[in-house]
């Protein structure tokens, strides 16, 4: 049975990965649909503003903090090697670190950077906007599932 400080660490991991899954789910299910319904210039401007606002302490503490917690959970699992939950703990950490945090870096951030370089009303922005919405949302779906799955398998490790 996982107990003591390790139990608290896993609970924090569940909370963090679950919160990130919720944010990503909101974007996948209604935010991106709403932005896609706007004229391209307005959609580009709104998404660029959202991307700037996202890199603030409130969200970054949860997003990056969950990555740190996932690393800590994996390290402690390797050191303690508990009889129960080791596969789930390592799987949860991998899901979040690669499927959420890693995908953000290799899939979503480059698209955000490209969008940020475009002038909202420019023809290039109008052409790129539907491509951006489709590709960014696809990878966001993957991040949503990975974050939620990480929370779920962390929970399974405690049962």
From TrEMBL:
<protein>
    <submittedName>
        <fullName>DUF1772 domain-containing protein</fullName>
    </submittedName>
</protein>
<dbReference type="Pfam" id="PF08592">
    <property type="entry name" value="Anthrone_oxy"/>
</dbReference>
<feature type="transmembrane region" description="Helical">
    <location>
        <begin position="6"/>
        <end position="32"/>
    </location>
</feature>
<keyword id="KW-1133">Transmembrane helix</keyword>
<feature type="transmembrane region" description="Helical">
    <location>
        <begin position="93"/>
        <end position="109"/>
    </location>
</feature>
<keyword id="KW-0472">Membrane</keyword>
<keyword id="KW-0812">Transmembrane</keyword>
<feature type="transmembrane region" description="Helical">
    <location>
        <begin position="53"/>
        <end position="81"/>
    </location>
</feature>
<dbReference type="InterPro" id="IPR013901">
    <property type="entry name" value="Anthrone_oxy"/>
</dbReference>
């Amino acid at each position: 049975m996982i107990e003591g400080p390790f139990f608290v660490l896993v609970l924090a991991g569940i909370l963090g990965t679950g919160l990130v899954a919720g944010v990503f789910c909101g974007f996948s299910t209604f935010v991106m649909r709403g932005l896609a319904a706007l004229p391209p210039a307005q959609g580009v401007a709104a998404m660029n503003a959202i991307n700037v606002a996202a890199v603030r302490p409130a969200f970054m503490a949860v997003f990056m903090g969950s990555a740190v917690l996932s690393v800590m959970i994996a390290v402690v699992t390797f050191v303690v090697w508990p009889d129960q939950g080791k596969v789930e703990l390592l799987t949860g950490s991998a899901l979040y670190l690669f499927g959420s945090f890693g995908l953000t870096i290799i899939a979503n951030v480059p698209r955000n950077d490209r969008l940020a370089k475009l002038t909202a009303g420019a023809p290039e922005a109008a052409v790129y906007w539907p491509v951006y919405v489709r590709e960014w949302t696809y990878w966001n779906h993957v991040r949503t599932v990975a974050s939620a799955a990480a929370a779920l398998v962390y929970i399974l490790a405690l049962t």
